[in-house]
Design brief:
By secondary structure, this protein is an alpha+beta fold. The chain is built from nine helices and five strands. A five-stranded antiparallel β-sheet has the order 1-2-3-4-5, with helices on both faces. α1 crosses α8, α5 crosses α8 and α7 runs parallel beside α9. The radius of gyration is 17 Å and the shape is globular. 34% of the residues are buried.
Length: 202
């Protein structure tokens, strides 16, 4: 099976949980060129951090700023948490979004730091209908085979935002849904304990 087929199937699986959230928004108007330009900014800033002399702590803080600016964290956090989101208080929901954002910055910030010396090139985009636009990029590391990083973008929330990241066919949304729900269950379905636990992870 080709990598593109794997990625497409993974994207569909990862996006299924947020389909209802996106469908509640307005008409899909995001073009592939708009999504490509948006992700080009994300890629430029991300690789700027990766190839900078910043410490790990500084880099993670900068990655979190990118998430806060470019990703639709409330939508992603809600999709990842699932049913417990509906029973959480407004304060707990806000706290969960902040904790999850920090967790992602630490986890994926460390992963992207492994790309030091790499180049990341945006190579194209495809309209995925209600799932938004999938922007494809290729990462080249010295002495290694290139690999694909896909970025799922949507404007259903009223502005263009990143809603999923797919690295070598592995969906961040799908992976974190499993991780977060395992953390929630390990904390005996206690939302406050889950938030505290998530704040220490990554």
């Amino acid at each position: 099976m080709q990598q593109s087929d794997i990625t497409r199937r993974t994207l569909l699986a990862g996006g299924a949980a947020m389909g209802a959230l996106l469908a509640a928004g307005g008409a899909h108007a995001l073009s592939t060129s708009q999504a490509t330009a948006y992700i080009q900014q994300v890629v430029d800033q991300t690789m700027g951090i990766v190839n900078s002399g910043a410490s790990t702590g500084q880099a993670i803080a900068q990655f979190e700023q990118i998430l806060a600016r470019y990703a639709d964290m409330p939508v992603v956090a809600r999709a990842v948490l699932g049913p417990p989101w509906r029973t959480a208080s407004a304060a707990q929901q806000q706290q969960f979004v902040r904790a999850f954002q920090g967790y992602l910055a630490r986890k994926y910030g460390k992963e992207f730091r492994e790309y030091r010396g790499a180049t990341m090139t945006v190579t194209g985009a495809s309209d995925q209908g209600n799932a938004g636009v999938l922007v494809r990029s290729q990462v080249k590391l010295p002495g290694q085979q290139p690999f694909i990083v896909d970025w799922q973008v949507s404007d259903r929330g009223g502005s263009t935002k990143l809603i999923n990241l797919i690295i070598e066919g592995v969906s961040m949304l799908t992976t974190e849904r499993s991780e977060v729900r395992a953390i929630y269950e390990a904390n005996r379905s206690n939302m406050d304990a889950t938030i505290q636990d998530l704040s220490r992870r990554g």
